[in-house]
Amino acid sequence: MFSLIRTGRSLEAITAASYAMVRYYALAPFSMNAIREPRTATLTVNEIYHSIQGESTWAGLPCVFVRLTFCDLRCNYCDTAYAFYEGEKKTLPEITSEVLKFDCPLVEVTGGEPLLQKNILPLMTALADAGKTVLLETSGAHDISKVDVRVHRIMDLKTPGSSECERNLWSNIQHLTRRDEVKFVIGSREDYEWSREKMREHNLSQRCHAVLFSPIFGRIEPREIVDWMLADNLEARFQLQMHKFIWSPTTRGV
Ligand code: SF4
């Protein structure tokens, strides 16, 4: 009460200011923590492992994967549903030191959807600062513009057959650069034609480093997509999920 009298501010004004402050911090818990307390900022991590990169133009290279928990999409072909909820909170230094122990120059941040946790931004920066080549695999449903410019973004555009097509954040396209790759996961002729048209409409083969056409595993014969691509002379790269041929398709941590 003494301070109220001294400052001349009403109780309502002070309560409103306090509420606004609490709300501000509550809305941005991860990024504020990361900026203020980098040593105690955390991420919920599903798994960290060393394997062979199975997709993208980086396929075949040894890579450390940091798989984050949580995803707000439910693609009907999802092969990492175990990452929707399972995970353990770790501080950014804990994650970085676990990654560095593998002594591998390539690191991929994946999920789930990594961009749901804002502390992923300082983690990717820390990994790039440590001299790693950093890849980000993202669903394309969240803003990619705040990602460190040194990171190679591999962004999905969800096809109609995924059942999550309406979640594509089209404004992301303007942020893509020649470091980035766009992936279409295709399960039918309709998906293929949709992908081909989006690719042409947004000039993706010029805008990005690569456009990837990938079959939904077990839903479509890969050969069909290859035939269509050849018939259309498409400036895209066909890919298979290499890890599903090296190990059993349901093996985790590979
Ligand atoms: S965005 Fe990825 S992790 Fe999320 S549901 Fe789709 S395939 Fe699964």
Q: What does this 3D model show about the protein?
A:
There is one protein chain. The radius of gyration is 21 Å and the shape is globular. 32% of the residues lie in helices and 20% in strands. It has two domains: 1-36; 41-246, TIM Barrel (Alpha-Beta Barrel). It starts with a helix and ends in an 8-residue tail after the last helix. The model is unreliable at 1-33 (pLDDT under 50). Strands 3-1-2-4-5-6-7-8-9 form a nine-stranded mixed β-sheet. With 254 residues, it is an alpha/beta fold. It is built from nine helices and nine strands. Strand 8, helix 8 and strand 9 form a beta-alpha-beta unit. The chain binds iron/sulfur cluster (SF4). The site of iron/sulfur cluster has 10 residues, from loops.
List the helices and strands and how they pair.
Elements: H1 2-7, H2 11-27, H3 29-36, E1 42-52, E2 62-68, E3 88-91, H4 92-100, E4 106-110, H5 120-129, E5 133-138, E6 152-156, E7 181-186, H6 189-201, H7 204-207, E8 210-215, H8 222-232, E9 237-238, H9 243-246
The structure holds iron/sulfur cluster (SF4).
Structural class: alpha/beta
Tell me which ligands are bound.
iron/sulfur cluster
* CATH homology-level superfamily of the largest domain: Aldolase class I
Amount of helix: 25-40%
User: Which CATH class of the largest domain is shown?
Assistant: Alpha Beta
How are the strands of the biggest sheet laid out side by side? Answer: 3-1-2-4-5-6-7-8-9
* Unreliably modeled segments: 1-33
CATH fold title of the largest domain: TIM Barrel
The CATH architecture classification of the largest domain is Alpha-Beta Barrel
The separation of the N and C termini measures 62 Å
How many structural units, i.e. domains? Answer: 2
Strand content: 15-25%
Radius of gyration (CA) equals: 21 Å
Largest sheet: 9 strands, mixed
Tell me how many strands there are. Answer: 9
Order of helices and strands: HHHEEEHEHEEEHHEHEH
Average pLDDT level: 88
